[in-house]
Backbone:
């Protein structure tokens, strides 16, 4: 085990652990934001640069600081490493710059975007963004396109995190979409006249950190904070059949994978619980699911609005007055 | 007359053929290395020579070789980076075109030193005619027993192949080159792991520039110590410089590192001075990615000392008053040239060539290009100049690979040294638009 200090908090982790995952072991606001890293997707990370942190001491053996900020999602920790995230002004400054870069072409269409309320860029913008923009040029625009009968691509909102490309590479048996062009004219697209129709293609929606890839069976039906997320399971031959069903009354509005607090699909029984397209798009009848109970949502999340789970510790404090 | 190690026989008629090259002492280093030296001996000679990578970064080649992991049962690869694409840099093309066997010879000796049995030359896609020349040289080397099985009866086997690139500047970055060679999109990899540990197909790999590999030939022939006697300080040996711009005699020159910049520009032996009797205004001494120098800092440092053509000499003063030797693309501007237009032109190149993987480079280079385009076309504001300076600060050091830095440095230096010219474009928009310096500004629509 190696010892690392992140924002003055010491943590012990396995050798080879990245700074980001060491920070996740501590939890809270010590954890750098990550738009492109996704622990369940091999090779992801290092691209968005939102997780850059300052390494004030490389290791006990070589305590020299690293001259540049490093990507915490791809830099392994060393014994005695000292990392600054929220305690570094340089990190905040650069994160604000990355936020500005990401928002150059991303429309602030949160009032109509289906990702509103669970958008990582929205959170990043809230914490690190500025009230105005310095970008005077014309923004790039695309028409929304169908990339499959159930998936809509809004390229305007895409921040090129590559997560969906990794899903296509690693989860589906034939890849028909990827990145075209380069530089600021790069775009996600399907190959000519192709559509994503693999059984697990719907997972590109779950990994998208913004609203670029949306579920056509759910688009514009409701804001997520009006829905009731319930853990549910079903008998499925293609996937584990464990999902979250988002309900309004007795009606299922959408089905997603079960995500952890970092917005990543959870591991269930040692396997990442990706869900198949049939569970996601076709099972919208309550009778098709075994509803297990309400999904616990972070109370700071907008999704938790008006959905109170009684915190027993708080209640006892209120009662005792301590 | 400067000593020449790489271009010594460049003017010999037919030197591109095996017979003529061999008659002029070609492939001696292969004979010497394979018959009398161990691979470790060759590495030691390269270390003793002090040779620094000629691709631009100037990292010591011998040290880079020493990092190569040597796990048992795993192949190692040597890749020659012939993806020369930086504006102003064309010296590798000249070397491969004129004397291709020097590169092939260098590849054999270097591969032997590194224990590689399969090596590749990754050539820029636009250099198709050069590819054919090098391909012919490789075929001749095979036919004469210098490549293939049991070279010269030494028991050493080497296969050498050419991989043509798709024409992307980013493929000159070593990990993007490896990705491209593997048949994937040429995007840089996140480091670590470094190629010396996990490179081509997950195996230990060394990537060296054409000129660096060619320089191994005289190092093995004459010894590393002899090579180290040439040059100055940590800048040993000779360097190919591709000189262009408003010079009387632009071209590719081999110089001994340590000569003065003044002699290089003004001596008749080299560039012959500034064309048409004009005055020099600025110089980019190491390819378009390095900071531009104004007239007063080209031949003298800020302290008034003669500036030298060496890694240290051109970097004297740091980024405030110095620049870099880089890849040796020496671009000179006379007094009539517009720095804003030139900066925009460079920025256009980097915005176009950014791979688009990381946000600061993808968005930042594009943003800078658009602001510079506005400034050049008389639509800029005074605050745009500071905005540019700030954007490039946010790109520098925050990207996956050095392309972000390469895009940021020229803009930062141009503003630092020629701010008044940027301001003139804001205060004189009509005059700025009327001028025509040959760049078709209508190629990209103004937005």
Residues:
């Amino acid at each position: 085990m190696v010892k690392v200090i992140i924002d003055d908090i010491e943590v012990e982790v396995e050798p080879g652990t990245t700074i980001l995952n060491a920070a996740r072991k501590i939890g809270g606001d010590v954890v750098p934001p990550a738009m492109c890293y996704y622990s369940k997707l091999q090779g992801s990370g290092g691209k968005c640069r939102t997780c850059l942190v300052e390494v004030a001491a490389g290791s006990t053996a070589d305590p020299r600081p690293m001259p540049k900020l490093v990507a915490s999602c791809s830099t392994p920790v060393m014994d005695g490493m000292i990392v600054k995230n929220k305690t570094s002004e340089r990190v905040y400054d650069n994160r604000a710059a990355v936020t500005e870069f990401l928002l150059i072409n991303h429309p602030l269409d949160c009032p109509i975007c289906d990702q509103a309320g669970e958008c990582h860029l929205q959170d990043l913008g809230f914490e690190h963004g500025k009230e105005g923009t310095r970008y005077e040029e014309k923004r790039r625009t695309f028409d929304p396109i169908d990339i499959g009968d159930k998936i809509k691509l809004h390229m305007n909102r895409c921040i090129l995190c590559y997560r969906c490309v990794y899903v296509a590479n690693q989860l589906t048996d034939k890849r028909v979409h990827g990145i075209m062009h380069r530089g600021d004219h790069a775009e996600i697209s399907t190959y000519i006249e192709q559509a994503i129709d693999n059984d697990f293609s719907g997972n590109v929606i779950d990994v998208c950190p913004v609203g670029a890839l949306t579920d056509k069976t759910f688009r514009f039906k409701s804001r997520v904070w009006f829905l009731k997320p319930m853990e549910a399971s079903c008998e499925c031959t293609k996937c584990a059949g464990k999902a979250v069903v988002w309900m309004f009354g007795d009606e299922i509005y959408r089905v997603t994978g079960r995500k952890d607090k970092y917005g990543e699909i959870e591991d269930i029984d040692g396997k990442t619980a990706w869900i198949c397209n049939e569970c996601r798009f076709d099972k919208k009848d309550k009778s098709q699911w075994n509803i297990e109970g309400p999904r616990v949502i972070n109370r700071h999340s907008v999704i938790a609005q008006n959905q109170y789970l009684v915190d027993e510790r708080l209640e006892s404090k209120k009662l005792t007055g301590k | 007359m400067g000593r020449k190690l790489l271009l010594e026989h460049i003017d010999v008629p037919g030197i591109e053929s095996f017979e003529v090259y061999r008659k002029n002492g070609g492939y001696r280093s292969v004979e010497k290395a394979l018959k009398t030296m161990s691979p470790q001996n060759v590495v030691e000679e390269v270390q003793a020579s002090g040779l620094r990578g000629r691709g631009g970064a100037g990292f010591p080649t011998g040290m880079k070789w020493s990092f190569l992991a040597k796990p048992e049962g795993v192949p190692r690869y040597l890749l020659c980076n012939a993806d020369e694409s930086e504006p102003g840099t064309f010296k590798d093309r000249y070397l491969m075109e004129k004397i291709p066997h020097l590169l092939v010879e260098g590849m054999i000796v270097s591969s032997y030193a590194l224990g590689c049995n399969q090596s590749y030359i990754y050539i820029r896609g636009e250099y198709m005619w050069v590819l054919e020349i090098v391909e012919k040289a490789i075929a001749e080397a095979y036919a004469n027993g210098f490549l293939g099985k049991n070279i010269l009866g030494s028991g050493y086997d080497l296969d050498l192949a050419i991989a043509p690139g798709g024409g992307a500047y980013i493929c000159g970055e070593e990990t993007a080159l490896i990705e491209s060679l593997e048949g994937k999109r040429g995007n840089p990899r996140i480091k670590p792991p470094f190629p010396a540990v996990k490179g081509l197909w997950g195996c230990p790999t060394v990537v060296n520039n054409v000129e660096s590999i060619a320089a191994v030939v005289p190092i093995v022939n004459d010894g590393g110590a002899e090579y180290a006697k040439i040059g100055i300080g940590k800048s040993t040996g000779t360097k190919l410089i591709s000189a262009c711009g408003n010079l009387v005699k632009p071209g590719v020159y081999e110089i001994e590192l340590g000569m003065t910049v003044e002699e290089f520009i003004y001596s008749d032996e080299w560039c012959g001075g500034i064309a048409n009797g004009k005055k020099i205004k600025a110089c980019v001494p190491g390819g378009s990615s390095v900071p531009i120098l104004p007239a007063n800092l080209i031949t003298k440092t800020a302290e008034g000392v003669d500036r030298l053509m060496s890694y240290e000499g051109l970097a004297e003063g740091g980024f405030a008053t110095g620049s870099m030797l880089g890849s040796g693309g020496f671009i000179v501007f006379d007094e009539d040239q517009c720095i804003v237009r030139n900066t925009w032109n460079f920025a256009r190149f980097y915005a176009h060539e950014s791979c688009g993987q990381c946000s600061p480079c993808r968005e930042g280079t594009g943003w800078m290009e658009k602001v510079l385009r506005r400034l050049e076309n008389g639509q800029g504001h005074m605050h745009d100049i500071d905005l540019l300076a700030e954007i490039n600060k946010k790109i520098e050091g925050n990207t996956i690979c050095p392309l972000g830095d390469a895009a940021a440095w020229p803009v930062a230096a141009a503003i630092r040294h020629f701010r008044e010219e940027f301001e003139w474009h804001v205060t004189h928009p009509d005059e700025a638009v009327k001028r025509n310096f040959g760049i078709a500004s209508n190629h990209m629509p103004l937005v």
